[in-house]
Amino acid sequence: MASNPPAPEAPFVPGQRDSETFGYGSYRTDEGPWTEWNPTEESIRPVRGRHRVAKQRGGLARSSTVLGVGVIAAVGAGGMASAQTGKPPVSISMPDLPNVGSLISDDSDEPEDTATALSSVGAASADTEESASDAGEALRTRIMAQAEQQQDQIESKAVAEAAAAAEKQAAAAVAKAEKEAEAKAAAAKEKAEAEAKKKAEAERLAELAKQYALPTSSYTLTSTFGQAGSLWSSGYHTGLDFAAPTGTLIKAVHTGTITQAGWDGSYGYKTVLTLDDGTEIWYAHQSSISVSVGQKVATGDVIGRVGATGNVTGAHLHLEVHTGGSNSGIDPAAWLRGKGLTL
């Protein structure tokens, strides 16, 4: 503690004392030796009112020191309290104070000024805490706003993706429908074309049928073209057999010229009709021939009668068709159908 050091003792000289010391007329033996009394705050009991010991100037007094430590402790406690709240640290501003000792003066209103200063410090700390709270609330609000904005962006993106997927699916469905429609249209067109072609062919064959005729009537097909067997010298049948009673009329299948008429070995009586395109029609196993070589005939004209001459097992007409002057024939049934005839 700071205190005023006692003054050094002055040497006592009795003969030099004043007779008026302390108001006594003469020197008293019960007095002295005396020392100079230097009063301090510790040696004087505090007195109410304005009787106070003058404070030393030129340095901080004890009371000023204590008050300064208290202010610093209060400010430090405020900072610790702010730190314990978990809020972000904030700067604390202090009012301008020349020195702690200046808060205490000799005037009677000094305690009120000191309290006001300390109250200002506490209010500043409270304002700081409130500012920190407001800052935290503002930060929370901003974070929530950002979160909501991000959520809105995610939802907007999801909606856009769903719309794009739906549009893509719709486009795929439309493309599929168009493709199916095109395929259906193509099939319908192809079918129509086929029907038209078939109709045209039928019309053509109908016209040809007017120009061609079957070689005989009241018949039964017995042996077909290419049929294998030991009955034929080549090992297979080279024509088409129309089984009919002997004497059944044989007709010209188309307009042409008779190029052969007579006996031909295993064919028996045989007639060859050559058409304008060079196709040869062979009529074999006839019982009789009604035409001669070089004769012109028309479709349906009688050229002979069914018989059983040559290498046969019964009465029938053996019909062969040769194209291009070759001895190897083609299927007479297919050729006749190609001319619009029905067997």
UniProtKB/TrEMBL annotation:
Stretch forming the signal peptide: none
Start-end of Pro residues biased regions: 1-11
Residues annotated as domain M23ase beta-sheet core: 236-326
Domain of life of the native organism: Bacteria
Family matches, as InterPro entries: Cell_wall_metabolism_enzyme, Dup_hybrid_motif, M23ase_b-sheet_dom
Pfam families: Peptidase_M23
Keyword field: Coiled coil
Coiled coil residues, start to end: 171-211
Disordered: annotated segments: 1-42, 80-136
Single GO molecular function: metalloendopeptidase activity
Protein name from the UniProt record: Peptidase
Organism whose genome encodes this protein: Streptomyces resistomycificus
